[in-house]
Amino acid sequence: MYIPKSEILTTDCLGKVFSKTVATYKFFWFVSIIQMHAKLDTQKFSVWDVVIRMVANAWYPIHYFRLSFGKSDSLFDIVIELQQITQISIDANTETIINCIKERLEEKRIKRLLTILTLNVPYRFLRPWIDTSDDKEMVQRSQTLENNCLYSLHKNGGEFYIELNPKWNQYLYNNYNILIDFAYWNLTQFLQVRNPNVPAITNKLIRPEVRNSLQKQHEYWDMVMSIGGPIHCIYTNKELSPKDYDLDHFIPWSFVSHDLLWNLIPSDGSINSAKSNKLPDLNYYLPKIAEMQYYALQLMYKANKEPKVMEDFISLGYTIQELVNMNNEQFLDLYKRTFNPICQIALNMGFETWKY
Question: Could you give the 3-state DSSP secondary structure of residue 87?
Fold first, then answer.
């Protein structure tokens, strides 16, 4: 992915900021600066404010999706430890995290952790413009806005801040979405190498404001129950009837990051809070979900009902006709081949196993 060119700005240098990256710091540093520039009517940003926003932006992919940032990345450990100290929810939104950490910034343990993020990335990010590894020299040369660098660094007593080059101001405003996408696209490439078996990494970097409603999936299961009568929750054995149930992501959404029908199962309303983001015990529950899904497919096919949402099953590598033509053992084997490796990867990432 490339960023828009400019005849008056050194956009070629900006395009190179992620070319020699061994940790996630630069990605989150850049995203945080772009966000603050768009939100605040100023060109001057405290480095403390930037690194706090870095933590907030990294919070969701680390805590909720448990992505690995690699062995040499301190940001991961910092975010984990800050959550343990502050007890901020793993599902908190960005502004909540920022405000909570700002309020406690002067606490020694929190200040110590955030200080680590101020030591390198503010200087190293400018290397495409200013070729020096000496931090003092970087500060001095950045203040001349050498090569039209993106910002200058300022350290006055206890104050440490950056000041954006005013020549970049309009470019940053005009290309906000492209620049954010540029940073996250490069971050996705970086994380994919470190999480080779994790699905849908692009969907695991930013906390969604609203989750999908699952309306079509509910309509499907309502239809199954309307045609075939009540079914029983695979976890509690409670009888379920149309519109009187929840839909459970069998493998948690926080791992698969999708709402495909073959992973969704009607459940007793108490299960979502009890099971949360845990993995079901496959030895016990996999035959049960396979049996229910097989029953529903057979029922809908014989009733000549094939709503579009049933096309989700094609992602398992078979047409609806082929799935319906399987016997119970063949369908269970398909579910074992699908869910066993997914579950093992999730276990390796630290997801816990659950049984009602």
Answer: coil
Higher pLDDT, 182 or 213: 182
Q: Which sign does the torsion angle of CA 270, 271, 272, 273 carry?
A: positive
**Judgement on whether residues 196 and 229 belong to the same structural domain of the protein:** no
**Tens of pLDDT, residues 265-320:** 999 999 988 998 899 999 999 999 999 999 999 999 999 998 999 999 999 999 99
Rounded to whole angstroms, how far apart are CA atoms 163 and 183?
A: 20
Task: State residue 158's pLDDT score.
Answer: 79
Domain, as residue range, for 200:
11-204
Determine the Cα–Cα distance for residues 163 and 45; give it in Å rounded to an integer: 6
Binned at pLDDT 50, 70 and 90, residue 79 comes out as very high
CA–CA separation, 343 and 8 (whole Å): 52
Q: Are residues 183 and 264 in the same domain?
A: no
In angstroms, how far is CA 39 from the centroid of its own chain?
A: 22
> How buried is 116 (Cβ within 10 angstroms: 0-12 exposed, 13-18 middle, 19+ buried)?
middle
Within a domain: residue 134?
Answer: yes
Same domain, 173 and 223: no
Same domain (yes/no): 24, 161:
yes
Q: How many domains does the chain have?
A: 2
